[in-house]
Design a protein that fits this description.
The complex is a heterodimer of chains A (573) and B (117). Chain A has 24 helices and seven strands. By secondary structure, chain A is α+β, with helices and mostly antiparallel strands. The chains are: A alpha+beta (573), B mainly alpha (117).
Chain lengths: 573, 117
Amino acid sequence: MNSSYAVPAVALVVVATVLVGAFGLRVSRTTSDFYVASRTVGPRLNAAAISGEYLSAASFLGIAGLVLVQGPDMLWYPVGYTAGYLVLLLFVAAPLRRSGAYTLPDFAEARLASPAVRRLAGAFVVGVGWLYLLPQLQGAGLTLTVLTGAPDWLGGIIVAVVVTATVAAGGMRSITFVQAFQYWLKLTALLVPALFLVLAWQGDGAPRPAFDEPAAFREQRSVRVGDSIDLRLERPLTVTVTGTVDGRSHDAARLRLAAGTHHVARGTRLVFDRGTAVPAGARGTDDALSPSRAESRSKRPLYATYGLILATFLGTMGLPHVVVRFYTSPHGVAARRTTVAVLALAGAFYLLPPVYGALGRLYAPELALTGDADAAVLLLPDRMIGGVGGDLLGALVAGGAFAAFLSTASGLTMAVAGVLTQDVLPSRGVRHFRLGTLLAMAVPLAASVAVGGLPVADAVGLAFAVSASSFCPLLVLGIWWRRLTPPGAAAGMLVGGGCALLAVAATMAGLPGDGALHALLAWPALWSVPLGFLTMTLVSLATPGRVPTGTAAILARFHLPEELRNERAEVTP
Amino acid sequence: MPQDSAERRVVVTGPPRRARALGHYRPRTEIDEQTTLGHTYVRSLMRSQLRAALTAFAVLVLLVGPLPLAFAAAADGRLEWAVLGFGLYAPLVLLARWYVRRAERNERDFVRLVEDR
């Protein structure tokens, strides 16, 4: 791909982010400005900011890539990301804003008056935040590698530096402007190329096999395998090989590979005939990192789908960068209306990735094979349109992708840094917040350089599962149930969230081979969410004496409209 | 709707205010003083809000829950493409708007009840 336009586009996005952030810096004066933009952000600006923050690398690159590899089942991801906001609106939005807390640990402490629960919630915020930051940095690395051939880690480092600088300098207020700007940038960067791609598709005679299962090569296609991969064949495959397959070298030999797994060494060239189904490939060792790509999918597709639905529907409310945004609404009613606007903005955006996924199956099916499916969005303009037009559109997409990494990473860094500053580092204040920002970014950056290779949307799915099993019970029961006790909340978070975290870690480490156990561990939400709720409820019921004394007053604060609360202080003549 | 003057307030968690303005209608005082009657008022608001939320949630579950089964049953993948790719977002937004209207109406009714307006 020609990088002469793409690199300036990425540079432009980075510079614009810094400039818009600097504009925010001028108006960011007090500590309150710094953390929650003094709560003066109106619904429209706030909704664009929330959407800009929420539409991450997983949305921008990952969904199209997953759809390309695995077909329409993966469209549950964007549906879940959007419906998660609906669930958040129904049970959490207004009371959370009225609780008057800055962060999730603040909420836990305000509701339960327990420093221990607060610390536990803080630990989960940091864990989920880091789990979610990792794929953003990796996505940035992938984008830069595809565009320029730069080493994997460079993109991640650029994003890390820009985000740390913006967040540490301007805090939340500047971030609000940056995020709102980036929503519109991202929408444009996907919409405009999508229009041209659809026109190109029509010019091509509007071929329809994009929706067929499985995707097939439309013409004879030669694929060079960059890194050695394992081909997983459900049916025998006839292919012309130049290079090494299963340890035997061939030179333009026509092979009939039996069903099963075949190892293809790096540098091998495979030529597929027209009409051949695209086999699923995975880069040897990275395979275990991908629950959605593992065997569990074909063996338990329904279980996996419902697990995904549950995790995304209930996990959204506990994502640290999502929750912190609600504190910037001026009042509970505005928080609700903001959420509806977010639903509309996110829904509009999510109409686009499926287009890229479907076109990718037609025009770049070999990406599924080489494990670079996340790059489909970046490569399609060049592949389908070509020339200067293709390069320019490719540059626009690349700029949008970087906006995606920057915005989500900023929000997460903000949230994690907030917790680190208030609960881990010794004293409070803006200076320590800057130290917290550095720390918040350093850990996932190190991990992304060390680990590498986690498919972007999958990693995000794991963060959702942990959040759904720990914070969802805490928020829902905390807001609606009087008899929640500190021991109950702590036990529920530890058991639900802890189990999900262990399952995720076990899957990542590739512990269970396959079968039912693997499916259970790769899609933990289906059992860990009920487990979290059940534990929280039962332990609370078992410790009735520990219900905090101020519970009734606090619940009244959560639910009473502000006009009732505020007038009380203001009527004094 | 809260007034603009209230918007810049930063709420600080603290013990409930003991002093209250005189001449307010009784339910307000009951809520402020956290009497049993006051709690009953708050509970009734919570119940109506929870009912609205659960109704919307039930609609969501009925809308989405059967879909994976339907897709598994239907041999044609195009249905799944159409529904998941384009069909679900508009109903989600409509459901959200319905809920917000109902939640705001619940709150208005409650304020009217409490302030005897």
